[in-house]
Design goal:
single chain; 5-stranded parallel beta sheet; 12 strands; 359 residues; Rossmann fold; 38% helix; 2 domains; elongated
Length: 359
């Protein structure tokens, strides 16, 4: 910005995004330093492909973005590509609000080439996912799923004799002081590490894209997948689904879990071999707490539903109402930093996208 006018910021999205993702306090904060405009677009949203846009809609989109200093895209938006960027002489910021961690709605390389900053705030859902991961760790260590099954089956359960002698009551552990393994060290893992601090756990982390400096600053040991699967009392899968991570946790890795371990998955079901996991669970020497599964929804006849040493939730970890407004709250922070002349925190670059895709 070279003049004194407020920067023009636009949001291209469906009406649902406008209604559900923007909280008034965040909009008021944005309007203190920028002019804001929303324009409705309803292109098909997919995480694995860029939106296909008609000539007429793309012309409308170019006209909308062409007079902006910053554009935010989300569900429904066309792609911000070469023709849009070249038709927008004042554009200096593109933000992906949510739902597209692979930047299918932004041509990141072209943006960088034209000196346009690209950021995303998809990590806004990391907060509730990390909370649910912690909750599932505690549930698994206390064998709460098995107890709940007994109680809702109207069994007499919890007598003094049962608490002393039944095997299900012997699986009753604290998190404090345990060894915890994390598969993945992205935003969710970093938030979870914060939540784990009061428990004094020993942290082992596997992530081939993380540098040792992060391990030092956050206080964990960076190690191999084999170590993370075999040594901890609790193993939490937080890795993104990419061609490289699909099926990464197979029969060999699941066999490494030590007896009594708790396995938690809040990332994507397809990272884990479902049949191998069920087979290990049928031996009843580990516990699993799963927010995700492959396939989803979990088939009604799947064995996983019947196993007493399993706690299930239907992919709810990241879908809180608060997480939706947090996406925009985080984006306003990025816009404020950018137009104040500061560095943004969540930049999209070719390297970032390559890491996310497992390349």
């Amino acid at each position: 910005m070279t003049d004194q006018r407020k920067p023009r910021v636009g949001l291209a999205s469906t009406s649902e995004v406008r209604d559900r993702y923007i909280a008034e306090p965040d909009l008021e904060r944005l309007q203190k330093f920028a002019e804001f405009e929303w324009r409705e677009f309803n292109e098909e949203t997919r995480w694995d492909a860029s939106p296909s846009t008609s000539v007429e809609t793309m012309a409308e989109f170019r006209k909308f973005v062409g007079r902006l200093d910053a554009v935010i895209v989300c569900h429904g938006s066309p792609k911000v590509g070469e023709s849009v960027i070249c038709a927008s002489p004042n554009l200096e910021f593109i933000g992906e609000l949510e739902g597209d961690r692979f930047a299918q709605r932004i041509d990141v390389d072209t943006a960088i080439r034209h000196g346009v900053r690209a950021v995303d705030t998809t990590h806004g859902s990391s907060y509730p996912v990390s909370e649910w991961a912690l909750g599932m760790m505690l549930i698994g260590l206390r064998n709460a799923g098995a107890h709940y099954r007994r109680l809702i089956a109207n069994e007499e359960w919890g007598s003094a004799d049962q608490r002393d002698n039944e095997a299900d009551f012997s699986k009753n552990e604290e998190l404090t002081g345990k060894t915890v393994g994390l598969i993945g060290a992205g935003y969710i893992a970093r938030r979870l590490i914060e939540l784990l601090k009061p428990f004094g756990v020993d942290l082992l982390v596997h992530d081939p894209y993380v540098q040792s400096e992060l391990a030092s600053s956050l206080g964990f040991t960076l190690t191999t997948l084999e170590a993370v699967m075999s040594k901890p009392d609790v193993v939490v899968c937080l890795a993104p689904l990419t061609p490289g991570t699909q099926g990464m946790i197979g029969e060999e890795q699941i066999a490494m879990l030590k007896p009594g371990a708790v396995f938690v998955n809040v990332s994507r079901g397809a990272i884990v071999d479902s049949y191998a996991l069920i087979s290990r669970l049928e031996s009843d020497d580990i516990t699993a707490c799963l927010d995700v599964f492959d396939p989803e929804p979990i088939p009604v006849d799947s064995k996983i539903r019947l196993l007493p040493n399993v706690f299930l939730s239907p992919h709810i970890a990241g879908t809180t109402e608060r997480s939706r407004t947090r996406f925009f709250e985080e984006m306003v922070g990025e816009l404020e930093r950018h137009f104040s002349g500061h560095e943004t925190m969540h930049n999209l670059t070719s390297r970032v996208l390559a890491n996310r895709r497992g390349q």
